[in-house]
Amino acid sequence: MPFAETYATEDTVLQTARALAHELGLPCVSPGAGSVLRLLAAAGSAKAVVEIGTGTGVSGIWLLGGMRPDGVLTTIDVEHEHQRIARRIFQEAGYAPSRTRIISGRALNVLPRLADGAYDLIFVDADTTEFAACTEAAQRLLRPGGVLIVNGAHANGRISDPSARDVDTLTVREMLKAIRESDEWIQAVIPSGAGLLAAVKC
């Protein structure tokens, strides 16, 4: 295991959330990737954060750990049961209900209802088929200097393999290329967990 993954430590609540995700067959951010989420939230003094893909609350706990004490995490997921678990996890971690806004539904239906330029950080942990639409929405939703983070930038280890031509890998490549070539983002790929694309809105 890479040192960055063992360097990041998780408390009992996070370990419980991770175990529940495993039981449900849900992927979740690695400890190393989670520590990057917390770091970027803290570096930007994030108060308003959007998370696409609640899961069992693993990434949400990491994000809340870096956000301002008065910050609110808006987290979106299509699975009610996952969100029920996440709500309990957030409570067990000591976060008041007012710190989270849990929205059930497809991200592509929910994002258009969110306010322009109102968010400090957006974390996308969705199906690759939604990457393009989510990153496009992030451009509208983030304030200048706001941060977009997309999980899965390594495309399951296939991103640098020129022979990998499956739909998921091609979709990730297209998203990475579009962000890199845009004048609206300052970007980097962080090699933690499944790979994180991080981009600051200019």
UniProtKB/TrEMBL annotation:
The record's annotation in Pfam families points to: Methyltransf_3
Record has Metal-binding as a keyword? no
Which keywords accompany this UniProt record? Methyltransferase, S-adenosyl-L-methionine, Transferase
- GO BP annotation list: methylation
Q: Which SUPFAM superfamilies match?
A: S-adenosyl-L-methionine-dependent methyltransferases
Sorted alphabetically, which InterPro entries does this protein's record hold? Cation-dep_OMT, SAM-dependent_MTases_sf, SAM_O-MeTrfase
Coiled-coil ranges per the record?
none
* A molecular-function term among this protein's GO annotations: S-adenosylmethionine-dependent methyltransferase activity
Lineage top rank: taxon: Bacteria
Listed name of the protein = Putative O-methyltransferase YrrM
